């Protein structure tokens, strides 16, 4: 084949006569003939491989040329053929072949060009059709829906092909520009889709970015990519994050860092006139730079100077973008103490730039720069030497005219306070005394060092250097002759006495040296020598001086910072009554922050915001309530007493010097909190303190109990919604503080019963007098009766708790005192110490058992005994009657109270529990009130903990409530069962499948509770592993009729907890064995899906092969065959050679089973594969028919006989080239 294929600029150029040896399309068929030609192409692809494109390219050209009149499915079919052609598989070996001939190389090159050209053009056509359909608002057809799933596959195929070293196919390894442009234009065409930035298109977006990255790195597309990025940003504003991600990936994963500089230079070179004309492009550039700064700030530093020119431009958005880039660089790169000189210089320069734009002419820029500084401060990247300066600038921005700037300034100041490096308490008044003290200490250190300074010693050389000029002048003046006569006479005398003078001079020098040495011996030691011994002490003092100077500077900076905060407080306090809601909210939050750091005058703002609780703006009112709750109603402490003390102190602090208006505001805050049911729990610590921390008990006639019992009794006959919670806490307090709470509560029940009877009598008289206005009286009586029954149940519950806690602990205390006295009275001999200790230990254990038995006996016989002073037993028949007659006693509150009280009565003894357990479960199942069912579940949960043996046979009834129609009941049920199972009160059995169903509950909070249940259950050894087979059987039960998608969702979550290889292997065997007992096709499919969800390993695959006979006759079902085949598909990549051989065997067996549906039984396999010959007979026999549903028994291990003929399949299709080339085998 002597022609060459040239990638055309236009598709129509392929039919025009070109140059020498240029390929020209000859056979353009009609659209009606395309299916047959595609079939020929498919057959040639199977026989000839990828090179068949050389002979069938005209078919692909016809699809491109007539795509408007061709069905989309034909385009998809051609696209699938090109994807599975296997060029990326066959090329690597050919490229490594050095002896490849020129004609073969030309054929391979032409095949690559043709395949890539058709792939790219088909992709563009299908993408355009899909976009047009979305614009028109029409539903996408089957072909376009298939294209959505094939798009990513096409891009991956192109990426795999271009990652190969295909440049060797070209002469001199120079890839022609048209070939690269064909691929890049396709990628950029896909990026122009408006939905490409959506989350659902992330795989496609990533595939495009990686495909372009390969071309940028290997095919010199750097400059083209940078220019195209700029063009995309100019025309498609929504592509800013996509382009930033692409540039980041190219510079990091592909190592092409120059692309960042090129794009930055392109943006930096844009003039103000160009930016003014582009309009939306400026916003895209700004968003792109901001996003890129968050991704690769370190790579942007070398080229950041080209962007600084835009800080002087007219576009505020670009100025903001550059400032945000500087902020990211300062936070993530130029931060910390390990910077070199150049790094510190860059950091200071960038900081100066940001500070300049705090005074920008545009308010948007000022606000965003303040936000950038907030991020810097929160990241602790601001140098200490700039704290004071930036703080002062932020305080100045509080006077800004723009609301957004003011809000940003307040946020920055709050960040300064929250992340300040100075102190947790910022009060300038508290810092004055420590500052003065440290200043005095520094002054003392300096004076001490001055006193201990050594005396200066002048060296001989220094002394001579100072005296030499004066000596020279004196000698010259003395030795200079006065006249010429005297000079001549002196010269003659010197000549005559020359020899004598030399001898005399030598004698004088020797005498002088001797005298000097004697004088040196008599001299005292010099001060310099004395000072050398104190050098260590002097060094220590100097070190202390430096430390003191640093401490003093730290205190000065702290004081300066505190003063600036106080200055800001004075300004922000005035903003609490601004008309702008957002500013007021920020001011409230700032006041809370400064109060938490004990800044001076911080309470001024807190008190000033208090009247805002009356604001008509709900947001402002809620902000004030939240602020006071955070400051004063959120007690902190290690224990309950400490929390209660903190709460009392905080509230007391508010009441100091409080005016009547302040008290009213505080009352409003408390009432608002109570009405919203958000702070009721804050009173629990006080009650807990009173209950648990009381070291003594009060007498029954104490005024506290008198007031409490009176309030409870009077509230029984009143319809007060708060009476129930008050009664519960009051009865609890009675049992914790009263000396004889049982007698006190017995009289309370008598008093309440008498009041209720009086009310009923008065109502009867009113009805007898036929007073129509009094008809609501029976309803009030029902409410009163409900409250009385609630009181009875609460008394019964706390009576049992009182016996088992207080009375039992008191018995132990008395027994301990008795034993201690007896031990002191007896003086055992040393020889019998060990026997005495053993005897005391046995006696102690026996005594504890006796005390426990005594408590149980009291609960069993005396609590419900018919004595006059004990009225608990009198109400039990009434409770049973109300619960067993819902038609007669239909009042909701009465039914609810009776059910809850009955469950509390059943806590008293096992006999009462056994007697009425059936009634309580009947109420649970048949009550029409959801609150009754929920309360019954809670009560039964408590009974399960107390009497597990009695409740064990009724466990299934508890699990049934997991499928209750009411969400509140389901939530209560899953919460109670979670506690019972995780605390090992209930044994985990197959009923847990009901909890698994809640994983797909429409209520998200219920689904999250179920997910939390399994997360906690997974922490127990092998818990979920042991339950999975039963769960699968229950969920796949035909009677349940669960949706397949729901079943897959549940199983996917449950199988995620199976991580051990041994567990996977065992589950494979268990699930395969269940194929034998499965009776329906749906159960087969569910088991196959469950197997596919396992994280299969080599051992698991071997076990799957060993269990072949269990499921081989089910493979005629697509729902069984496809999941099992997907198991091998998961293991192909990265598999070891032995595992690959095993997968080939399994796949071949599966394929033979599939092919047996189309081939007659008398057809035999070719004898060219020994492995398959050994397996075909068995698989052929097994796959002839499906098992019989009627003849299949649970204990049957024989392959069922066929009852119907297998359905015919349409045709064999190949899902992907990877499955074909790895799973293919010869028959």
Automatic annotation (TrEMBL):
Pfam families per record: Cnd1, Cnd1_N
InterPro entries the UniProt entry points to: ARM-like, ARM-type_fold, CND1/NCAPD3, Cnd1_C, Condensin_cplx_su1, Condensin_cplx_su1_N
GO cellular component labels: condensed chromosome, centromeric region; condensin complex; cytoplasm; nucleus
Stretches with biased composition (Acidic residues): 481-502, 1216-1227
Keyword field: Cell cycle, Cell division, Chromosome, Cytoplasm, DNA condensation, Mitosis, Nucleus, Phosphoprotein
Function: Regulatory subunit of the condensin complex, a complex required for conversion of interphase chromatin into mitotic-like condense chromosomes. The condensin complex probably introduces positive supercoils into relaxed DNA in the presence of type I topoisomerases and converts nicked DNA into positive knotted forms in the presence of type II topoisomerases.
Entry similarity comment: Belongs to the CND1 (condensin subunit 1) family.
Gene Ontology MF terms: histone binding
Span of domain Condensin complex subunit 1 N-terminal: 82-225
Basic and acidic residues: compositionally biased ranges: 531-542, 809-826
Location of the region described as Disordered in the Swiss-Prot/TrEMBL record: 479-503, 518-542, 809-834, 1208-1227
Localization per Swiss-Prot or TrEMBL: Chromosome; Cytoplasm; Nucleus
GO BP terms: cell division; meiotic chromosome condensation; mitotic chromosome condensation
Keyword Cytoplasm: yes
Protein name: Condensin complex subunit 1
Domain Condensin complex subunit 1 C-terminal: 931-1091
